[in-house]
Amino acid sequence: MSTATTPAPAAASESRRNLARDLFSSDRPYGVLLALIALVVFFSIKSDVFFTSANLQNIGRQTTLVTIMAVGMTFVIIAAEIDLSVASILKLSCVSAALFMNDFSNNWFLGAMVGVAVGAFIGLVNGLLTTKLGIPSFLVTLGMLGVAKGIAFVVTDTAPVLVDSRPFWAVFYEGSIAGIPVPILWTIVALLIGGVLLHFSTFGRKVYATGGNATAARYSGINTDRTKILCFVFTGVLAGLASLIFTAQGHAARPDFADGLELDVIAAVILGGTSLFGGRGSIIGTLIGSLIIGVLNNGLVLIGVSSSWQIAVKGFIIILAVALSKRR
Amino acid sequence: MTTAQPLVDLRDITVSFGAVKALRGVSFDLRPGEVHALLGQNGAGKSTLIKVLSGVNQRDGGTVLVHGKETNFKSAQDSRDSGIAMVYQDLSLVPSMSVASNLFLGREPHGGTRLVRNRSIVHAAQKYLTEQGFPIKASARVGALPFAYRQLTEIAKALMGDIRILVLDEPTSALSAGEEEILFKTVADVTERGVGVIYVTHRLHEVFRISDRVSVLRDGLNVGTHNTSDITMDKLVSEIVGPGHERMAQATLSVEEGDRRSAFRDESSESSTHAPVIELRGVTNARLKGVDLKVRPGEILGLAGMVGSGRTEILETMFGLRRADEGEVLFEGKPVRWGSPHQAIAAGVALVPEDRHEQGLVLADTIAANIAMPRLPQLTRAGAFTKGEANRRAKKAVSDLNVRAPGIQTKLQNLSGGNQQKVVFGKWLTPEPKLLLLDEPSVGVDVGARDEIYGIIRGFARNGCAVVVVSSELVELQLLCDTLAVIHDGRVTTRVHTSEVEGEERLHHLVQEPAR
Question: What is the DSSP string of A250-301?
Answer without folding.
Answer: HTEE-TTS-TTHHHHHHHHHHHTT--TTSS---HHHHHHHHHHHHHHHHHHH
